[in-house]
């Protein structure tokens, strides 16, 4: 078969993802990629992409890439007029809280999160009434309304540091029950939890991991702390997607299983081709709502703009800024 030559300077981009994206599929992406690059210059826009985005977004049009913590930090520091969040809605809200003067766009309003949907601001107020004086640590995978009712936020990458910084023997840690239990096991601090779960990570089981170890000798298992504690217990390492990236970088080669959303393995495979990634494909349906086509439409039409009540945003921003200061 004749090789299809990518057009208009996109050949260098295709080289990044050549072993993941077939040539025929790439040809369907080229026009959108070219248009997005033009629109970014015209709008003074940046695209923030979470680690769970597909390779053609993550490696070919995004300007800032990373986990929730990295994206929050960069959203706070960018001087772009427009921020396009190639992620889910709570991430766009966090970007708006931290950079209120920029226009923040989310390409698909239905790009949600099972954790964010599991709890409301009213729920947090009831928890405070039930456990007076106990600090509330809220995972960033929550709405702006929930963050506004919290003392401090955390991510999966800094949750242990945040909890230990409070100097207390009890913490209300919401909404991810499994993250809270995993941090409780690490710190010995009692966690008052909420029954929220990530619909991707809750599906992994110890049996699945043991079967993969049997099928792939020498396998090293890296589990996200949103996984059930019994899954973390049979893994070799547990950490955020950024911590997984660091682990793969520092332990070059070998066979690795990332117990997280499947695009993470694809994106790391671009940077670390010497590593063999074993891919269980638990896919986040919300992340996959973001596409090149709707990123382009978002920039063309300036949709969909994320707006927040100023008072609520101010309270939520304090909780996020307290986290970033640790």
TrEMBL record:
EC numbers for this chain: 2.5.1.72
| InterPro entries from the UniProt entry | NadA (IPR003473), NadA_sf (IPR036094), Quinolinate_synth_type2 (IPR023066)
**Catalytic reactions of this protein:** iminosuccinate + dihydroxyacetone phosphate = quinolinate + phosphate + 2 H2O + H(+)
Compartments, as annotated in UniProt? Cytoplasm
Chain positions recorded as [4Fe-4S] cluster binding sites = 113, 198, 284
Cofactor(s), names only, from the UniProt record:
[4Fe-4S] cluster
- Give GO MF terms, alphabetically: 4 iron, 4 sulfur cluster binding; metal ion binding; quinolinate synthetase A activity
A Gene Ontology biological process in which this protein takes part is:
'de novo' NAD+ biosynthetic process from L-aspartate
| Function of the molecule | Catalyzes the condensation of iminoaspartate with dihydroxyacetone phosphate to form quinolinate.
Please give the name of this protein.
Quinolinate synthase
Native organism: Komagataeibacter nataicola
Source taxonomy: Bacteria, Pseudomonadati, Pseudomonadota, Alphaproteobacteria, Acetobacterales
